[in-house]
Amino acid sequence: MAKLEIKIYPDPALRKKARLVGKAGDDERRLAYNMIETMRASNGVGLAAPQVGISKRIIVVEDVEGDNSAALTLVNPKITRKKGKAKFCEGCLSLPGISNDVVRPEFITVEALNLDGDELEINTGGILARILQHEIDHLDGIVFIDKIGFLKRKKIIKQLGAKVCMEL
């Protein structure tokens, strides 16, 4: 296993839409294991492949509702249902030291494949729903500060010292 380099905002890799994965093989398994090691070494609860510079629709998340020693690997995850709204303070390994309240759906259904190609459906709410939405956003080139107001986002970008073009 190897710890991977986490891309830091405004790295262009964080803004690209990740490619679908065909059949997961040895490369995807190795990537997932390395992503889990990287996530845990960085004290994170989720990590998406684009955050380590890999354009594949793969995320790993800690199983915060089940076995705390386990992590979930989801291939080609997509949110198929959303319900409610909840505000929660989020942070991100790609935006170190930055956190802000973000409003997201409270309950979601996610469909994905595991590394063996088996179909999964996860119906969840609370913190796991929050983590899944955050990581799936990364697969579409979205970072959590895109979900907050313009002035707060501008302040955060200035705080990061990032010279990037902000979308309105």
Quick structural overview:
The protein is α+β, with helices and mostly antiparallel strands and 168 residues long.
In words, what does this structure look like?
The chain has 168 residues and is α+β, with helices and mostly antiparallel strands. It has a single domain (12-160), classed as Alpha-Beta Complex (Peptide Deformylase), CATH 3.90.45.10. 24% of the residues lie in helices and 31% in strands. The protein contains 3 helices and 7 strands, in the order αβββββββαα. The protein has helices spanning 26-41, 126-139, 150-160; strands at 46-48, 58-62, 71-83, 86-92, 95-104, 107-113, 119-125. Strands 1-2-3-6-7 form a 5-stranded antiparallel β-sheet. The protein has a two-stranded antiparallel sheet with strand order 4-5. A hairpin with a 2-residue loop joins strand 4 (86-92) and strand 5 (95-104). Mean pLDDT is 93; it is low at 163-168.
